[in-house]
Amino acid sequence: MRTLADQPLDLRIDGNHMWREMSSRQYFDEVARKWDKMREMFFSETVREKAISVANVEPSRLAADIGAGTGFITEGLLRKGLRVIAVDQSDAMMNEIRRKFQGGEEIDCRVGEAEQLPIEDGAVDYVFANMYLHHVEAPSIAIREMARILKPGGILVVTDLDKHNFDFLRIEHHDRWLGFKREDVNNWFIEAGFKNVVIDCLGEKCCAQSSCGDTYASVSIFVASGKK
Ligand SMILES: C[S@@+](CC[C@H](N)C(=O)[O-])C[C@H]1O[C@@H](n2cnc3c(N)ncnc32)[C@H](O)[C@@H]1O
Question: Most buried among 119, 159, 177, 227, using CB within 10 Å?
Fold first, then answer.
């Protein structure tokens, strides 16, 4: 039987969990090819429909999908006739999104980080960020950075998890934040200069089964929007 002393150095033990220590980027690079299947188990397409409907998008406008992954939100925006800049830290996710949309002219994929998005100031009409905020190191900075790339009058829509206590998500899915208090999200939007800030229940839950034990997470999702 293997003991802890036998484990390679990047294995860690936390309670009942043993996991490989890796960065968020490494984690998402590893899951990129199976992300669409994972996403289907976590949350449904209603999340995308609600997020996009809140922004009341107009065709031909330019949107950014931040933390785009394999393009869950991007796909909905393209269907509505928008052009999209998809940004993600993970090269593997960006490869998947390029493969999925076959280099279409309406989509521009860029590898980039939350604190320094690879988009110029005031460039886009809408910014969407689905299930991204709870992975970033500093959510308030990430929101400020998303405000920077919006045109005046542009709209930010963040869909993410309400505060919860399912610690296994931190270990098994690399969540940095166990959801958010809506009050904090509201303050970050205001501090970033947004007006007409509304935070509402999206009406859906994000669900995940722990791979260790029988813990099952079911967490409500909020939709936050504001106008620059
Ligand atoms: C949970 S996935 C959501 C993907 C997609 N938005 C969706 O709804 O399917 C989070 C995504 O955010 C990206 N991400 C996490 N932290 C990031 C950061 N600091 N900068 C840029 N992207 C980041 C990850 O690489 C991953 O693709």
Answer: 159
